[in-house]
Amino acid sequence: MFEIKSGHxxxxxxxxEELAQQAxxxxxxxPSLIANAANFAALVFHSLPDFNWAxxxxxxxxxxxVGPFQGKPACIRIAxxxxxxxxxxxxxxxxxxxxxxxxxxxxxxxxxxxSEIVVPLVKADGSLLGVWDVDxxxxxxxxxxxxxxxxxxxxxxxQAVDPQR
Length: 165
Ligand code: SME
Known about the structure:
The protein is of the alpha+beta class.
């Protein structure tokens, strides 16, 4: 159970649902990718516990380039197929890494990171926008509910920034 701002506790799934609603309201009617990405990163980072980094890597046609985020300064460019982010981008499948120290090729931007989830962001036309990456200082922070919750949040984000969706 997580404590939320109002002081009562909600199960993880209910908390993701509430967060998705907040994100939907926050992004509604604003088409700017950078503005929405910045506010989305801030909303998620400050609403859920035990994160040390949450943000975007955007695909520039060649590689992933760091975008709006919350947390310490991060690696700027990541090739497709490299690290957890590059793997999510290349496979287009969410990566849930229980212990980053056992992930071959993990890119350590912040030594505090112990577990990580990365969701690929794919536009309606099939092209890659980038990835959504969240790191935690705790091993095993992300489970199947986080996968479903983060994917649902990313769907809300994509609906706002990709007019074709
Ligand atoms: N750990 C990531 C790199 C990005 S930072 O975590 C912000 C990776 O292996 O792709």
